[in-house]
Amino acid sequence: MSIFVPMNMENHIAQLLYRYQCVTVPGFGAFLTEIQSAQLHESTHSFFPPKKIISFNSNLKNNDGLLVNHIAKAEKTSYEYAVSAIQYEVHNWEKLLQENGFFSIRNVGSFSENADKNLIFTPSDQTNYLTHSFGLSAFVSPIVKRELFEEKIEALEENITETEVIALIPERRKASSYLKYAAVFVLGLGLTAAIGYPVYQQHIANQTILVEQSVQKQVQNKIQEATFFIENPISAVRLTVKEEKMSYHIMAGAFRDEQNAQKKLEQLSSQGYKARRIPQNKFGLYPVIYGSYATYAEAEKAKDEIKQTINPDAWVLVESL
Which domain-ending residue is among 91, 117, 141? Predict the structure, then answer.
């Protein structure tokens, strides 16, 4: 009979929730995460940063190797021992549920049973597992009080007293002599413009004709010397299109045997999927994916179709490969 050293299962699950969207506890169920955008509650003046919402699916019980390999590496033990330790921990959870009707996993959530003996999961809101929101916390903004300035304006208007109106009467000066000289000067300018303007226009027209003739002559010379051979052709321009980054992948499975991974790849390829194998992970497994996508929305849509048709255990891996 094996004696299991107590291990911090809660801590191992929490560490994986920061990095993955699906953490399966073999024989018990899977914790799934979904990103929720920032929230603003106007009624309470509260702001909540983006976060991961945790849900639980009791139907996903198959061992995908993620939690087992993580525990084996963290606890520096064997793969088989980690599997047995998880089974032992699951047995303790089920025992607590039967005896108390309730048990909790710290920083993850709590479990209870309804009248039909179905598991009810209530996620914990104490920890935000979205790494992009690290350092951000919810806060409540104080109500902005807007002062009414109308009363102040009315009070100021009441205090305004009538002021004396000062009439400014400009001094009149005798300017009749200056006006006479100005009239004579303006009349002289008008006569000069009437005589000189037609002469100026004729001069401009003659100069324009000469310039146009010169330009036409130069154009004709260039046309006669033109050739269809380009001595210094412009070099070809190469446009480099940046490949769109595919960071969302739908997992088909992770295999300890590389041959099994290759068989799975060939099977999916024959079914029309853009499947591929990704490098061996640090747990010694060979992952196979159905395909990669540029956005989370595209990956979620494809995952739902796969789960409804061939693989209910498919999940999305977020990682830059």
Answer: 141
